[in-house]
Queue: 4 jobs
Job 1
Amino acid sequence: MFNMVTDKYFMSEFAELIASHFDQKLHQLVLDDFRAIFAIREFKKTFKYYRLARSSYGSLKKIDDYKNYWASLSSPLMLSATYLSNDLIEGKVSKSNLIQRFDHLVHECFNNDVIVQSLIESFDCIVDSALHKVLQKTNDVYSSKHDLYIIPSGYGWSGSGAILDYLKEFSNTTLIMGEEKIIEGDVSFKYFCRNIDNNDLVFKHAVKFFFINILGYYVIYDNNYYKPLCDARNRIEKCKNILEYSQLVRKISFSLSRIITYTKLSDRQLYLYSLKQELKNLSKALLDLITVDITSDKIPVLNNIIHTYNLDILEYLDDVKVVCSLRDPRSIYISKSQESVGFKRDPSVFVSSQKEVRNKIKKFINHADYNLKNYSFVSFEDFVLKPNVREDLAKDLGLNLNNHQFANQYFDPSVSIKNVNNFKIYTEYKKEIDFIYENLKEFCINDSCEQS
């Protein structure tokens, strides 16, 4: 076991090593470096190295030796959790056996008695629903701790960070750092929404959801598992109000157990109606979980927990307002080229990815229920250049401009303006920018846009 001094030295040395290997495109060594870091630190402060490993993996994923790379990182406790989850789904193991194994697992994973007891009680109710069809009692509607959650949303260098900085300047808002994956992760809440018509998939995911997104222990089958598992561990480790957290874990588990029971209903219409209502309850409880330390008098601001290309899941969320930032694709290309680790300067690939994202946005707008009022779109360029656009946005979100007490402390228009039409500055990109313009004209802003 490393002490604090040697551990700090180890991480410092590895930080330089993995960055050097990445810069030299020695991708095999990058993955070896990350495996060594993860073996000692697991999810603790390894996310920046994970991003390098993820980029390197993209270059090697088709090679047989690396196809199971992510799973190879998993610890014995993560394997035990997965076996336990699978046995519960199969339904061929007794409740006493499952509970005994889970009790041992959580005592190995956590040293907080409140969390341990909460998890054991939560698992117990999920087991009952999975094995015995026991339906947990509940109120029809879950009442959220906060009346409103604000979610700045982007799709990769689209300017949502500027909106986030502006919202931080209001005295009655509080920012949740990081892009939590519990809502839109491929193995998180979004999976329910996208597979709602498949009872079997919903049942299996309800069990897995508990292990991945609440417990934080499960095999890392691919890189989509990394962030949700990391988020779950960090939430428990950093939570200040552990009693409230444990109560929310129980509520979430009761919700998951009801979802499990609904999947066994023979009445198709009743199943879909019940599940849709329960998903709204679950989403509220999840939002409360990730904002557990924010007092009820503050409005939580959650950075990109729903990206613009996943707006369809808003059908299953209440009490949220999503602000979607749209930006000229030419500027996005320049910003990614300058700032994004592992970004490849290939305008053809970029155009294809932008079309895919923006077509998803158009499809959502065209098919969204007309009563759905929990999203809005804003042009990044207008947001930066026009004060009235920022003020209108604040009003639309229900924010009082009198509470904008820290103006220009985080969002400074005079600084952000350099990211408006930045494609005009980097003349060495001219051919690429011209190609992007020819293929994405409808998404390019008026070049005569001027500051007001």
Job 2
Amino acid sequence: MKNTFVLDLQKYSGVREGLAWILGREYKDFEYLLARYMFYDEGELTLEYIEDKIKIDWGSMDLKNLWIKVYHFTTRANEEEAFVDICNLFYLLSNDTEFREFFKSHGVEFYLDKLQLMANGEVYNFGDVKNSMNEALEWIHTKLYKDSEVWGFVRVLDINEYNTDFPERPEFITNVAELLKDGTLLLDDWNEKYGKPYVIEFKQPFYSIQISSNCMVYKNDFMRKEYLDEEEFEAKQDQYELELKRGLFSLLLAIFMDNVSRYGVSELANNDDEDRKGLFKHREVERLYGGFEQTVCAVAPKNVNIPSSQILKVWEFEDFQKNARKNNGYLN
């Protein structure tokens, strides 16, 4: 598609490029404003502050031309098998797949249309999950019927802070193993056959995913906030689009300023006095933005698989971890 832009929130450079894509010709004014802010101005560098200082042409920002990189953490038998369609959990367990057969070989069978799971000959009903007092079953129910979509991250610095099971295995494997009399057999078998951790980098149209961030307001949240029904929402579509654009800009700005708090601003100073003022403001920026939104999730729509044609790269897990911190000012 002509004039498309692929946004990468994982890298500081990608965030800067995203701000430049949104601001267009005004990006140079933004850089000048940032330098002025770091040496002279008071307050917080918020979207409202920026809108007061420079003109942002929201109308020229076409979200239909925007794609975004997503990073999906998983395990595979080898790197070659990572370059295949990324399928949602419900699809994998509702169709004739190697994933489903793996569980069947350990006495675990899924009957998702009947809301049932059989493990070691015992039948579990997902309809009774709230009364089961079985934590593992509750997690399995949640992942199948509430969070079965393809999940990933648009930004993550350390996956171990988010998911203690990975890189050993996906959480779902642990949950199923906890139902079995001897779950270690299933875990050992998984680790032997499919236990190598990878990060699959793929792209998606911006409109096809939802980013989990306080900055972003999506349709259902917008309708609740404005007390709208479907017909009234259609009449306010332009207002919703503007809020979506402003939310994305605010997210980019927060990540950008978080990085500024580590990279420093001495190179912007023209003299010693500005250098001293910049160092003082630098501490304020670190206090306001340091550590903001280090982990930002993204989720594809329900029942949607990611085609292999949209996979951009497959990372070795350790390489990804190292680059994640290096690209955001934590390592030299």
Job 3
Amino acid sequence: MLLATGDRYVTGAVVLGTFVVPLAFCFKLVEGEDLPGTELQLLVRLFVFGGVLGFLASAFLEHPLGSQPAVVFDGWVGLVEETSKLAALAFMTRNFVGRTPRSGFVLGGLVGFGFAAFESAGYAVASAVGPGTDSHVLIDTVLTRAVTAPFTHGLWSAVAGAALFASSRNGRFRPAPLALAALAGVAVLHAGWDLMPYLAAHLEYWSTGTDAHLKALYETGQAILCLPPLYVVYRLRRRPAPAADGERESAPSGSLVSAGGIDRSAA
């Protein structure tokens, strides 16, 4: 559509790459799930506002790193963005009592897909209005990010969210070892993904002294980085659903817990 119309700003490629694809995976994520308290309003808020909060927080925290070399910046940005997304999830589900690893996986994934959508939109705008705009570069950037979103931001946030909810006790999030280990793990995977171009380039140079197979090494490295979180997904889906955090202990007498799973007394 972009090449046919010459429209650099509102194109089918941009819409497809930035929002339609992440939303499609969000629908797939929640399809068939029967999670207490996950009404549509909460799901939309997590995708939109959770994604925006995580994106803005990471942009603010990444600003001081802008003066660092590209390798240093890419190495730290994983920790910054994954922490920002997890903090946004914790803030927006602070009154949510149906906390299980499975619900954390679903809700964390929504925040991750929202983050990916808004970040991709930013890349699309930068490519469209930047100097020497190339339509092919814009399409390649947006569609590449659309294809990789399910295996990057969405999957990383889902795994971290599952660990965060599993570590919750008595309606409170805790910096438990499981949650911290999951955050560290996805941050390392994120950093590895961002640093893969440098790693592939150095590996190719050391092995043959040419860059003929650089793209193949780059894509192979990214595929390998997808395996650990996919294994976590496999194990999580095979586990029996545990009791939600709000069901581990009986609610105290007089507390106002709605049927929808939101503790109104804590609002």
Job 4
Amino acid sequence: MSVGNICSRNLITVDADDAVSVAEQRMEECRVGCLVIVNNNQRPLGMLTDRDLAFRCAQSCNPSRMKVWEVMKPLPQCVGEEASIDEALKLMRGGPYRRLPVVDRNGRAVGLLSVDDILTFVSNEIGEISRLLQQESPEAVGHRASC
């Protein structure tokens, strides 16, 4: 399974030159805690989380004057949409990152992969395996044979 199949394709972005207040408003409107900062070609430049805003702007930030590039984390790492989940987990553990921008073959941001996306996928797979095992248990097979 590739990262592109499980990542969120609802990517919320802002420009590095936008005011921090624009980023805050976008997070609130979209009810997200993370934005991907992109250039004009949709290539990721960095990420900005609600936690970044809380810690980096708490003391001396004027959100209408400070620019996103002043508080964002420069791009930590990206993962290609064709990459395996295992590859993405290795990048996350090596970071450590909880989220990775997903890029297409041209390096344009097309999604965001989170640890939660991976956990949801794995949980669903375990549930499916459990259902299959229950169907093949001796009791289930015997019940079908007697019908």
